[in-house]
Design goal:
CATH topology of the largest domain: TIM Barrel
Bound molecules: cobalamin, iron/sulfur cluster
Structural class: alpha/beta
Number of helices: 17
Strand order of the largest sheet: 2-1-3-4-5-6-7
Number of domains: 3
């Protein structure tokens, strides 16, 4: 029996423990379907460094990490090696962009799409063993030989995508609110802050039948109220989107569950909205990014302020809630541009959303330009790549030319605005009450005479009425 343990490196931030990562779950389902190893046991856990090694007693460990959690991945690798000398394989977006980051406790790094490569690594380990000579014959990996980083030939992507079975969510701890799915890999756009295009190279889609079957099995397994479709490209191919909608309606899935989807605002039109409505999408998350035409053109091509306004108008017209996502600290963005975004959010009256400060992740265009400006390098403290600027204002990595303190001030102003809006949405009564009390306090401080006269007038009126 080959015992495989796949570990998602997570920080102590409670947010990291509430989601089930799809990448490792795809690896697991692919192994279970295609592995020729007679007996294989795949387990998936989260860890922030250590875990109960004896309980799992693995024969091989795979670690998944993003940039923010890469230091944790290194700690996990060291912990595994400290317990037993078994192979440790690292994968995910961070190591794929920077294979040279492999630590001495990592035996191989899987670059890019992981399913077939991980399977071959496991089969080689179970058969001939993971010697350097054997590693050299496996495509799509990096490893070290006498300290030298060797990268093997790039692996071809799996096609058609339907060959990959749906993620093995049954092996993960899940709750009803944590139901994500993706329906594509890759992206034809090249937003400067996102690594999707570079990571996946080409764009591939799961077929409508595959997508709908996955939705059905999610409903059967978890009875969720909502399913979140998290790829930006769900609506990219209109014909495919319509086929998915038709299947959902035909099989009455829209009567059993509601959906949220992410979209690129420039792709929204009347027909798409009708489709979204038919399939029972109640909320659409839009990466509007900026309310300044100048800043928007820097980070996203083929998306204008008019697209943002138009998408907002159309979605609302069809009774679909809009989740609005914005960025700050964009290269070239001035305080005036940030003000424009602030007013844009107010004007458009978004009530659900968030603003993030742009983080230059490896593998993105903004990383390359930050590198040439000397702001980042390939061997940094990856802990500073958190997107939580408000928690780490001093050491978060940013690319803004606006001085850090001023950016922080603007960011906090934006954040407070979103918090107020959120309060209105989640507890309008409470928010109105708080707003009322705050207004009264303000009024008393600034114009006590007016408050006093109002109070007297109120008493007089009640007295007269009683008489
Ligand atoms: C959905 C999503 C989320 C969801 C679900 C997360 C999840 N891990 O499933 C939520 C909202 C929870 C989320 C959270 C975050 N996300 Co997110 N997310 C995405 C998104 C849109 C899709 C991820 C996905 O499902 N991909 C599909 C799977 C199949 O791909 P994959 O995970 O990369 O796995 C494949 C390979 O990488 C490889 N692989 C991965 N792990 C391993 C391990 C081994 C052993 C092997 C062999 C191979 C292997 O094989 C897998 C199968 O082919 C991507 C953008 C994108 N379009 O890809 C961003 C993205 C991954 N997220 C990103 C970020 C920054 C975050 C957060 C750090 C944000 C935050 N500060 O909270 C957290 C971190 C959570 C985490 N630890 O993963 C960045 C990561 C950039 C970076 N270099 O770090 C991305 C790339 C977006 C971007 N800005 O470019 N995210
Ligand atoms: S942000 Fe969305 S649209 Fe832009 S490149 Fe990434 S996946 Fe594509």
């Amino acid at each position: 029996m080959l015992k495989v343990l796949i570990i998602e490196a997570i920080s102590k931030d409670p947010y990291h423990t509430v989601f089930s990562p799809l990448g490792p779950a795809y690896l697991a389902s692919y192994l279970c379907k295609y592995s020729k190893i007679k007996e294989i046991d795949v387990k998936m856990i989260f860890s922030d460094g250590e875990f109960d090694f004896r309980r799992y007693n693995p024969d091989i460990v795979g670690i998944s990490s993003v940039t923010e959690t890469f230091n944790i991945a290194k700690r996990i690798a060291a912990f595994v090696k400290g317990n037993k000398d078994i192979p440790v394989v690292i994968g995910g977006v961070h190591i794929s962009a920077l294979p040279s980051n492999m630590s001495s406790d990592m035996d191989a790094a899987v670059i890019g799409e992981g399913e077939q490569t991980f399977l071959e690594l496991l089969e080689t380990h179970a058969g001939k063993g993971l010697t350097k000579a054997n590693l050299s014959g496996i495509q799509g990996i990096a490893y070290r030989d006498d300290g030298r980083l060797i990268q093997t030939k790039e692996r071809e992507l799996i096609a058609p995508l339907d060959l990959i079975p749906p993620p093995a969510r049954q092996l993960q701890k899940k709750n009803k609110r944590d139901i994500w799915m993706i329906t594509s890999r890759g992206c034809p756009y090249k937003c400067i802050f996102c690594s999707a295009a570079q990571f996946w190279k080409t764009v591939r889609f799961f077929s409508p039948r595959y997508v709908v079957n996955e939705i059905k099995s999610l409903i059967e397994m978890y009875h969720p109220e909502t399913i979140n479709i998290v790829d930006d490209l769900f609506i990219l191919q209109k014909q495919r989107f319509n086929e998915i909608v038709d299947l959902i309606v035909k099989e009455k899935i829209n009567e059993r569950v509601r959906f949220t989807v992410l979209v690129r605002p420039n792709l929204i039109d009347e027909d798409i909205c009708l489709g979204l409505k038919r399939m029972n999408v109640t909320l659409v998350g839009c990466g509007f990014e900026s309310g300044s035409a100048k800043a928007l053109s820097v980070i996203k091509q083929n998306q204008t302020l008019e697209d943002n306004v138009n998408a907002t108008r159309l979605l609302r017209k069809h009774g679909i809630l809009v989740g609005a996502f914005f960025m700050m600290g964009i290269p070239g963005e001035t305080i005036k541009d940030m003000e424009e975004t602030y007013h844009f959010i107010q004007e458009q009256e978004y009530s659900r959303g968030e603003s993030y400060v742009l983080t230059p992740f490896p593998g993105t265009q903004v990383w390359d330009s930050a590198k040439s400006r000397g702001l980042v390098n390939d061997n940094m403290n990856w802990d500073h790549f958190t997107m939580d600027f408000y928690k780490h204002p001093k050491d978060s990595i940013i690319v803004s030319e606006v001085p850090r303190e001023e950016l922080f001030k603007e960011y906090m102003r934006m954040r407070k605005m979103w918090e107020r809006k959120k309060a209105m949405v989640t507890s309008p009564v409470e928010a109105l009450r708080t707003a009322g009390i705050l207004y009264l306090v303000k009024l008393i401080r600034h114009n006590p005479y007016r408050v006093w006269s109002f109070f007297i007038a109120f008493l007089r009126a009640s007295f007269t009425r009683r008489k």
